[in-house]
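# step 3/5: fold
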Amino acid sequence: MAYSNLFLEVLFLVTVGILWSMIFYQLFFTFMGLFYRIKTTKEKRIYETDRKNLPPVSILVPAHNEEQVIERTLESLCRMDYPSEKIEIVVVNDGSTDQTPQIVREFRRKDSRVKLYSIPEEEAGKGKPHALNKGLTQVKHEYIAVYDADNTPEPDSLRYLVLNLMDDPGLASAFGKFRTRNQKRNLLTRFINLETLSFQFMIQAGRYLLLKMALLPGTNFLIRRKALVECGGWDEEALTEDTELSIRLYKKGYRIKFVPYSVTWEEEPEKWKVWLKQRCRWVRGNFYILRKFFLSSFRSKKINIILELSYIFLLYYLFLASILFSHLFFITSGLGFIAVLSPGPYLAVWGCAFLLFTTEIIMVASFEGEASFENLGVTILMYFSYCQGWIVLVFRALYQEIFKKPIHWEKTPRFASQENQSKRRDHEH
């Protein structure tokens, strides 16, 4: 006979309630993201013809063993639609043991705007935020842009960010959208492509439209030097230094804007092992942010910070725990070990949840012209595999937190394209 008691009934109903609350939250912000896309499409048309006297900009590119991608990135940065004499590009070499510094030096012979700063050997290898802080001491201008070493920004991307900051003195920073350059490489990169699009339009765009709240990504952003220095630069203990810096900017009373028509293309992990390490680092970085800011945010009485940290808490603790309990209820009741006696069309409820998930993802994909039968199939597979993988990595991160596993910044390995491989062969010859 299947086991049942009041506690199981209540736990089951709470689980269903949390899951559906998050589903409706995501659905609501998907529509907000659509409205923001429409709004910013009109905004982009204005900035396309805006030719203000643009200020000088310093571009920081932290680099550690980036020989596969750094030349392509520099080429892209040097082709920016921005006054040539008003750009300096500082590549911060963080203890590279490959050909990265040599490639940058060779590139500098072609374009003197590119500079190489190598962190002293005894200080190298401490991670991206440390590299950015060291690079901050080397730049000259008030406007500072940051691009990862694997990025290829579109020509107008920097100009759009600068124009937004020029038009709104209350903005400390503006950031653009990032797209997956290697999305067609395999099933994992297809999953990541849909995931990143969904995050940017559901969370970043929708949340900014409604709450004027957005969190910096690690790349394709512009920040005022004054605001950055006032905040004390980047936190070198943070594994997600972008989110951590965002919270401190908001605590200082600054604002950050999401500018989706400023676009950069980046390389995403192509192997599951690499993905697991990268995302686990992100999760542990968010745990650090909760420890650092969650309780103090209530004393600050800044609603946007409280809502953001509460969302992180709900996502990593209650929502994923609810998914796990939902799976356990489904399996154990299906095997006849337990019985849920509370009446309800639970199979239909699960089916509707799956349908809404699929609808949200395809709707967001349509914003970028990527709604297709292929992506519909990828989305269905994503629900049953990729999304469940998040449960594994969150529990892995929790295990590392509980048992005090050492925290250190790990660079995501790059995968050479055929174009990069041929260029490397040319350099060798």
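# step 4/5: annotate
Strands lie at 57-63, 87-93, 114-118, 143-146, 152-153, 171-180, 221-224, 255-266.
# step 5/5: archive (pending)
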